[in-house]
Write a structure and sequence with these properties.
The structure holds two protein chains of two kinds. Chain A is of the alpha/beta class. Helices cover 41% and strands 24% of the residues of chain A. Chain A contains nine helices and ten strands. A six-stranded mixed β-sheet of chain A has the order 6-7-8-3-9-10, with helices on both faces. A four-stranded antiparallel β-sheet of chain A has the order 2-1-4-5. Chain A is globular. Chain A starts with a strand and ends with a helix. Chain B is mainly α. The chains are: A alpha/beta, B mainly alpha. Chains A and B meet through α2, α3 and α5 of A and α9 and α10 of B.
Chain lengths: 259, 316
């Protein structure tokens, strides 16, 4: 579905993301694990070809036999949202705060599909319902929703465009445990029912364990470990992953003591 | 929205009362005897007896607060007294000149809005190209030119040398071009750069990335996201510009023989016609208050966060 070959991000004199190669199949979920500054967000922006101009992207990102690095702006525009969905970490970064959620959903649907406003509105409302939001939320402004609801509205927006792969950049970091579970279940259900592929980026190992079947571990812009999730979590070879697992164990013990 | 409007109208009343006190006291603190000014403006002989008589006639012998109460209560019935120079009611004279000034200011204001948006957008869209550099040069030159010099320059080039536009007075569209440009150019120069900066600031906002990531076209992003937020940031500034345009037509009206309130005021200042000056300052200050009110309402209308502020943010 998506094939990433030697994807690297550089400035004039520094390599920020070392060449990275991986492939995501339909319905597959890949986790990208790394601490802050490891290059996770840079990877998501490079995949979408949305890095700011001083940064150079090398290698190729092939989606349905089309290399995004050599695609026109119009080709990229039609792939973004439509084939590659994106969920950001910051829920306030999803919608323009001055415009209603529904209006922005309709605008996105109509950017990819020749459809009437009424049809687009029906699609938008159906997507809102799918994430357990109510019809009236269509007419809400983003600041009228809580963080968790906004993240669900963001997922509804992505979902209404029916992408094949969702790039989720730490979508649960700012959420409480309950909302986090709801959001993760939603994504897993879409993966199971609709064959959605997911690239799940996070620094939370418990979330990655829940979401990914294969993982990439990033450290300082370099992939230090990769492989099937079960195998890596049972027998980690990189110090980064060992450290992640160690702290997870410490936290779990702490939580058990508190209980 | 209604709550914002009623609250602002409510606060407008004490603001105007306070303003009238400040204006009244300020003119009483200016050195010089209003009775002498009255005699001088009326072209009457200035003698001890005449000064004494006029002082009593104008009520200047009464305590300041009494004078203020008397002036303010008359003002409530739109009676602001008569001009020392002409002996005519000030309001009537003012209303005779004011439409010409409003016309000039409104045209200048619309020109400022149009060119600020066009020039600011062009230099932000084509940033670091010759369009941007050209606009920057225009801004530096335009903001550095004093109005009186710019007016004379335009008059010399387009009226006296090329003969394209008339040199003065009010009449056809051609009569408006030079005075409007003289008034508008300094504001266009300053605020087109400001608008460019706000547009580029909007570009950095996080939801702009998300808008691109969901495949919206650059045209949609530019019009529905960037321009909208840029204009909103510009709105308070535009309110101030309108106020300054209304109050700052003195020089332009004199250069282009424009029959507006600016020229009328210039004469009043020269003749120390205190009631006229007092009335004019009050009117302009009220205009500023009113324009600010309109800007606040416009902002509330365009920014839903402000509109919903009074009700508190609902998380439903």
């Amino acid at each position: 579905m998506i094939e990433v070959n030697n994807l690297a991000v550089k400035t004039a004199n520094k390599t920020l993301l070392e060449p990275l190669t991986f492939r995501i199949q339909k319905g597959e979920s890949i986790g990208v694990l790394g601490e802050s500054g490891a290059g996770k967000t840079m990877l998501t922006k490079a995949l979408l070809q949305l890095l700011p101009s001083p940064l150079q992207v090398e290698g190729s990102v092939v989606v349905h036999d089309q290399d995004l690095n050599s695609s026109s702006n119009e080709q990229l525009r039609s792939i973004r949202g439509n084939v590659l969905g994106y969920i950001p970490q910051n829920v306030q970064a999803i919608f323009d705060p001055y415009r209603k959620i529904g209006v922005q959903m309709v605008e996105a649907i109509r950017a990819h599909e020749r459809t009437t406003k009424r049809e687009a509105k029906s699609t938008a409302i159906a997507s809102l319902r799918e994430v357990q939001l109510r019809d009236e939320h269509y007419n809400f402004f983003p600041f009228q929703l809580s963080g968790g609801m906004l993240q669900r509205a963001g997922i509804a927006l992505v979902s209404s465009l029916q992408p094949e792969l969702v790039i989720a950049d730490e979508p649960t970091t700012a959420l409480d445990e309950e909302t986090k579970t709801v959001v993760l279940e939603l994504l897993l259900r879409k993966q199971r029912d609709e064959g959605l592929s997911i690239l799940f980026v996070s620094h939370e190992i418990d979330v990655i364990k829940k979401m990914a079947t294969r993982i990439l571990v990033l450290e300082n812009g370099k992939c230090v470990e990769r492989g099937p999730a079960d195998q890596l979590f049972n027998d980690p070879s990189s110090s980064r992953l060992q450290s992640f697992l160690h702290y997870e164990t410490v936290l779990q013990r702490g939580a058990m003591k508190n209980d | 929205m209604l709550r914002i409007l009623s609250w602002r109208l409510f606060t407008l009343v004490p603001s105007i009362i306070l303003l009238s006190i400040v204006v009244f006291l300020a003119l009483h603190l200016i050195p010089g005897d209003p009775a002498v000014a009255y005699l001088s403006a009326s072209q009457l002989p200035i003698t001890e007896e005449a000064i004494e008589r006029v002082t009593i006639e104008l009520g200047l012998d009464r305590p300041v607060w009494e004078q203020y109460v008397s002036w303010f209560s008359s003002a409530l019935t739109m009676d602001f007294g008569t001009s020392y120079m002409t002996g005519e009611p000030i309001v009537e004279e003012f209303l005779f000149y004011f439409p010409a000034t409003v016309e000039l200011s409104v045209w200048a204001f619309l020109t400022v809005i149009l060119f600020v948006i066009v020039l600011g957008s062009a230099s932000a869209y084509f940033r670091k190209t010759w369009v941007d550099y050209g606009s920057r040069l225009f801004s530096i030159v335009g903001a550095s030119l004093p109005s009186f010099w710019l007016g004379f320059l335009l008059l010399y080039v387009f009226s006296m040398t090329l003969g394209i536009f008339p040199s003065g007075n009010r009449g056809t569209f051609a009569h408006y071009v030079l005075p409007v440009l003289t008034l508008a150019i300094p504001y266009i120069a300053i605020y087109s750069r400001l608008f460019r900066t706000s547009l580029l600031e909007v570009e950095k906002l996080p939801w702009m990335f998300s808008a691109r990531a969901r495949g919206l076209s650059e045209k949609t992003i530019w019009i529905k996201f960037q321009l909208r937020h840029g204009v909103l940031a510009l709105l308070p500034v535009l309110g101030i510009v309108m106020g300054y345009l209304l109050a700052g037509t003195f020089i332009v009206e004199n250069i282009f023989s424009w029959p507006g309130v600016g020229r009328y005021m210039m004469n009043a200042i020269v003749q120390r016609d205190y009631p006229v000056i007092q009335f004019y300052i009050l009117v302009i200050a009220c205009m500023f208050l009113l324009i600010n009110l309109i800007v606040d309402l416009l902002q509330a209308w365009l920014d839903p966060r402000q509109r919903h502020q009074k009700d508190g943010v609902k998380h439903v």
